[in-house]
UniProtKB/TrEMBL annotation:
Keywords: Transcription, Transcription regulation. It comes from the Bacteria. The lineage of its organism: Bacteria, Bacillati, Actinomycetota, Actinomycetes, Micrococcales. Transmembrane segments: none annotated. Pfam families: DeoRC, HTH_DeoR. PROSITE patterns: HTH_DEOR_2. The keyword Transcription applies. Residues 5-60 form the HTH deoR-type domain. It comes from Occultella aeris. This is Glucitol operon repressor. One of its GO terms (molecular function) is DNA-binding transcription factor activity. The keyword Nuclease does not apply.
Amino acid sequence: MASKAEQRREEILARAREMGLASVDDLASRFGVTASTIRRDLALLSRSGRLARTYGGAIAPGGPTETSLLQREHESFDAKSAIARWAAEQVRPGESILLDAGSTVALLARRLPALEGVGVTTASVPVINLLRSRPDLALTCLGGRLRELSAAFVGPLTELTLERLTFDRLFLGTDGVGVDGSICEAELDQTRLKELMARRSRCVYVLAHSAKLGHAPFNSWARLDGPWTLVTDDGADPDFLDAFRATGRDVVITATAERART
């Protein structure tokens, strides 16, 4: 017969497979044990190759693979459009704007209003293509290593340019948002770039539709140490939002067109 510890580890593994992320604090509360006990469980499962460690928890190997930007364009389109619309309304005349990669950020680029003196900087190829013919915008393109799946530049050359610039507003995309305020991406180059972007920006917004909240498809994480605002849609889990707000960060909820019709 399996011991209590073995049963607990099997359930941890099952939850990680089902939910993507197994948070140390959540697991400790669920099983009525200390966080250090959970960390030992995760370390054992990691050494055996059954889990991969992440910031604050673990992810089950063999999970979702990264899809291309083209494949993601029409996923949760109504929610992304509502988020992008709200984000575009925040831009003011004369501001310097930094746009990250991602399908929601590309929708934001489509909706940027014609305002006097706005400068836009981006490493995203789709955003560059969308804005290159806008005479009302001063467009700065960040170079570097082209990452095909995200259609954006990353790496040391991109980072070197960013270190010489500052911005009024940053709009970030992400593959997942942790309840502790961490954001998930497929590669460390992406998370490092997002952290640097946030450090160089006065106001930071993370654009993430509700399916990405509490979701961790990959094991690379960015920590945004300063204040930032999560912009999501009205399908977000209230429990997640309550726990997220408890970290001291702000949340904006946008209304999707699909729900507005029902």
